[in-house]
Write a structure and sequence with these properties.
By secondary structure, the protein is of the alpha+beta class. The protein has 2 domains: 31-60; 65-161, 2-Layer Sandwich (Heat Shock Protein 90). It has helices spanning 17-23, 32-58, 69-79, 89-102, 158-161; strands at 107-109, 113-118, 121-131, 137-147, 152-155. Strands 1, 2, 3, 4 and 5 form a 5-stranded antiparallel β-sheet that branches.
C-alpha cells in the first residue's frame, strides 16, 4: 500500500497543478454574479446603517426624555412626588418591587417614559410586570399627568392612584382649575 499525501513519514510533493488552477477565479461571465451579489449585500448593509442612524437622530422624545428639559422636569416632578406609605412615588414603586421579589415571585419594572400632551402637560408612565401567587403574569400601568407650570401631579390610572397620598377628606387631591 502506498503512503497517502500528507501522512506522517511521507515527503510532501508538489501540489497538483490542476488543484492550483481550480482555486483561481475563472474568467467566464458567471463570476460577475458573485460581484453583483457582493454589491447588493454592501448596499443592503449601507441602507441598514443609514436607517439606524436616521432612527437614532429622529427618535421621539418619549424614548429619550432627557432630550426635552421640560419632559425631564415632568419625570422628576412625578418621581419625587410624595406617595402613600413612602416618601416619594419612585421609592413606593421600588419598595413594592422589593416586597414582591422577597416573596419569591417574579417582578420586572419597565423604563420610565414621558409623553408631551400639549402646553405644560406631560404624561409620565412606567409599567410593572409581576407574577401572582398562582405563577401567572400580569401588568400594572402606572400613569400620571404632570403639569410643569403649576408643579402639580395627578394620577390617571388606577395603579397610580393607589400610590397617591390621601388628603384630609379621605380622597386623593385633584388639580384645582385655575381662574382664567
Amino acid at each position: 500500500m502506498a503512503p497517502r499525501h500528507g501522512e506522517e513519514g511521507t515527503i510532501a510533493s508538489e501540489p497538483d497543478k490542476s488543484d492550483f488552477a481550480s482555486s483561481l477565479p475563472s474568467p467566464d461571465p458567471s463570476g460577475s454574479t458573485s460581484s453583483l451579489s457582493r454589491y447588493l449585500h454592501y448596499g443592503a448593509l449601507a441602507l441598514l446603517l443609514i436607517g439606524g442612524l436616521a432612527w437614532w437622530a429622529l427618535k421621539p422624545a418619549t424614548l429619550n426624555p432627557m432630550a426635552d428639559p421640560r419632559a425631564a422636569e415632568a419625570m422628576a416632578l412625578v418621581q419625587t412626588h410624595r406617595a402613600l406609605g413612602a416618601p416619594t412615588l419612585l421609592q413606593a414603586i421600588n419598595e413594592h418591587v422589593r416586597l414582591v421579589a422577597d416573596q419569591d415571585r417574579g417582578v420586572r419594572i419597565g423604563e420610565w417614559s414621558v409623553k408631551h400632551l400639549g402646553g405644560d402637560r406631560y404624561m409620565v408612565a412606567v409599567t410593572m410586570r409581576e407574577q401572582s401567587s398562582t405563577k401567572q403574569w400580569f401588568e400594572r400601568d402606572y400613569q400620571w399627568q404632570a403639569d410643569v407650570a403649576r408643579k402639580a401631579v395627578m394620577a390617571i390610572s388606577m395603579p397610580a392612584e393607589s400610590l397617591m397620598p390621601i388628603d384630609e377628606s379621605g380622597r386623593m387631591p385633584l388639580i384645582q382649575p385655575q381662574p382664567r
